[in-house]
Specification:
Layout lengths: L3 H17 L17 H8 L5 E4 L3 H13 L5 E4 L6 H7 L7 E4 L8 H14 L5 H20 L3 H9 L4 E3 L2 E5 L5 E2 L4 E6 L2 E4 L2
Length: 201
Amino acid sequence: QNSDYGVGVFNVLKAEMEKGGVIMTNDEHFEIGSVDMRTQLTKIKSSDAELVLLAGYPKDIGQILRQASELKLDKKFFAHSGSIGPDVVKVGGTGAENLLFLYEISVNKEDQKTKSFFDRYEQKYSDSPELFSMIAYDTTVLLGEKIRECKEDVECVKNALYNTVNYPGITGLINFDNKGDIIRDLFTLFTIKEGKFVITE
């Protein structure tokens, strides 16, 4: 995607591929909000590429996947984590199925806390929890703990979150930097199955 985000991801990827001796067969870009990606996809279809990396906003990624499916483009698709959101499935439809992506969480199903969450979720919904359910759970529980500690003191809540160190969430250990962004160093491989973001088996 021709945006600071998309170009930034592309530049890092290209440098790492060159270091590892991986051949990049195609270098295709698109504008934010593009509705026709067929020109780029047709070039990729006729190339020797085995894997297509996507970096862009979720709605655009969904558009790419839908049109790739319409063109019967038989390649594996892998998206950058920043490209993932509900619009990927909403726009991409069945074309989004089997998309792979890494997300900055570490889910250990053997951990008692995590196992308990999975068991309770599956019992209630008769389905495995997907990515955003796990993130929402950790967010709600952690924020709830800080609010109970600080009551109505907003500054206290903010500082308590910033000072969080190795909080044991179901998505792994949670820490924040001085800007309030979460810090993680482990990843989990996800895919899309029946419209849901689930951990690969």
